[in-house]
Amino acid sequence: MREGAKLKKDVMITVDSKQEHPDRDDADVYNFVTEGTYYKEGGNYYITYTESNITGMDGTTTTLKVEPDAVTLIRLGNVSSLMVFQKGRRHTSEYNTEYGTIEVGVTAQKVSVDMNDLGGNINVEYIIEVNNQLTSFTTLNVKVQ
């Protein structure tokens, strides 16, 4: 790829997510592979894919903005949300669903980014709070190839 050429390509995206809840013994586990788009803009990588009924978010497009020390998850469609994962920092955001809007607090305990022009991996471990109550601990692994 010549210098200055825009990086944009179709990729396979593997998503492994495990959501543990303090009030339940079982965890919600999602593992899926989907096609998506991978591109670079302004020095940051972006991963975009369409959600399916596997995640319960059919009709929603998810974009991950990947920076060296932060990952931002942007969902638009039937479910709309913006979550910022930055180690040791708490970010609040609105989570809009067909049932209404809730305020969500997200605190990342781990943000590991290993991305280059060929693809790579993201690993994020975070806590979600709703109304200042711990609702889940989530581990999210995304692989782009």
Distance between the termini: 17 Å
Determine the fraction of residues in helical runs and give it as a percent range.
Answer: under 10%
| Overall outline | globular
CATH-scheme architecture: Beta Barrel
Rg over CA atoms: 15 Å
Query: What is the β-strand count?
Result: 10
> How many discrete structural domains?
1
Number of helices: 0
The helix-and-strand class reads mainly beta
- The CATH class, by name, is Mainly Beta
What do we call the CATH homologous superfamily? Calycin beta-barrel core domain
Stated plainly, the CATH topology is called Lipocalin
* Sequence of strands across the biggest β-sheet: 1-2-3-4-5-6-7-8-9-10
Average pLDDT taken over every residue:
91
Which H/E pattern describes the elements?
EEEEEEEEEE
Strand content: over 45%
Largest sheet: 10 strands, antiparallel, barrel
Low-confidence stretches: none
Q: Can you walk me through this structure?
A:
The protein is an all-beta fold. It has one domain (8-144): Beta Barrel (Lipocalin), CATH 2.40.128.20. Helices cover 0% and strands 74% of the residues. It contains no helices and ten strands. A ten-stranded antiparallel beta barrel has the order 1-2-3-4-5-6-7-8-9-10. It is globular, with a radius of gyration of 15 Å. The mean pLDDT is 91.
